[in-house]
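queue> pop job 88
queue> type: inverse folding (structure -> sequence)
queue> payload:
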């Protein structure tokens, strides 16, 4: 790097620090540099469906995802859409099936989308989205031409029930994607980022309830406890630390985002839910120990989610991992 370029970068970052606010919007050039340093530019993300039933816990590889969306599923059990761009994960899972709104979320990242099959109408819906799909199962219904491409293996030590034993790897997915001709260049993670510097707030506990009028099972309530020393949030679910199976370490998160939306269901005899992933809604952003109310927006399904503060400025996230919860109104609080 040229000395003059380095001086410009340092000067820009110093200007940010002098403002001493976690809510500063960094100029576009500096944001691009931060994105590049984080490895989030010019790659096609890998989005993988990961389950969150009790039998699936503790999961593998979630802590390495750049973004994780958590949304309710049948019977009030949540699932994750884990999105990888700057890190690879040697083990991810257990991998589970898709639903229409999970596919909608994945579409916002223009990824290679990995999942363990789905029901016939959802296969057809996923194909209509035009994503690079990697299902573990071939659609035998004839409603789509999605075939079983996802590389996976089973670990029977995880559960006696086979549906909780499927694992995959971002490395193997990339290898398979290249083998079948999927282009691996892309837009990375389409969020705004800032340096992890500035003042710290005193919001120490964020709590999220994924319950709906139909389902409110125990064990799916979530707490993110703020650790000021590391400027990160430690994740707990059902009152227990949410740890990684291989490392045993608690999941640590740099940004917590809660999007308020419409959650309906069950909508059919299979107990499927319906979750709105486009339009506009209330949002809450927990960054640097602060709690800020704002809005989220997303126009078409091909567009990314966009996050805004109440004054209309676009949110700048700390460089690092972000966990996004989509819930009904009145389901988030903090202290």
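queue> result:
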């Amino acid at each position: 790097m040229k000395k003059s370029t380095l001086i410009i970068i340092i000067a820009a970052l110093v200007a940010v620090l002098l403002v001493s606010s976690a809510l500063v919007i960094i100029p576009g050039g500096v944001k691009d540099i931060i994105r590049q340093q984080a490895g989030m530019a010019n790659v096609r993300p890998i989005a993988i469906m990961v389950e969150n039933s009790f039998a699936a816990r503790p999961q593998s590889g979630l802590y390495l995802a750049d973004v994780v969306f958590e949304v309710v599923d049948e019977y009030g059990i949540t699932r994750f859409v884990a999105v990888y761009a700057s890190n690879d994960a040697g083990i991810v899972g257990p991998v589970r099936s898709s639903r229409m709104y999970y596919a909608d979320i994945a579409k916002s990242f223009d990824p290679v989308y990995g999942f363990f099959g789905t029901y016939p109408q959802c296969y057809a819906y996923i194909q209509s989205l035009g994503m690079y799909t990697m299902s573990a199962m071939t659609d035998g219904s004839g409603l789509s031409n999605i075939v079983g491409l996802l590389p996976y293996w089973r670990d029977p030590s995880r559960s006696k029930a086979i549906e909780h034993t499927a694992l995959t790897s971002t490395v193997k997915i990339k290898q398979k994607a290249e083998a079948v001709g999927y282009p691996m260049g892309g837009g990375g993670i389409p969020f705004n980022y800032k340096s992890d510097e500035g003042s710290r707030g005193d919001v120490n506990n964020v709590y999220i309830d994924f319950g709906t009028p139909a389902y409110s099972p125990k064990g799916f309530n979530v707490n993110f406890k703020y650790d000021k020393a590391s400027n990160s949030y430690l994740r707990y679910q059902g009152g227990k630390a949410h740890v990684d199976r291989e490392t045993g370490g608690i999941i640590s998160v740099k940004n917590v985002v809660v999007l308020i939306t419409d959650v309906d269901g069950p909508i059919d005899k299979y107990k499927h839910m319906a979750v709105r992933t486009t339009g506009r809604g209330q949002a809450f952003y927990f960054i640097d120990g602060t709690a800020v109310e704002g809005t989220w927006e997303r126009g078409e399904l091909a567009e990314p989610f966009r996050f805004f503060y109440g004054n209309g400025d676009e949110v700048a996230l700390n460089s690092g991992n972000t966990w996004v919860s989509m819930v009904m109104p009145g389901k988030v609080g903090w202290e």
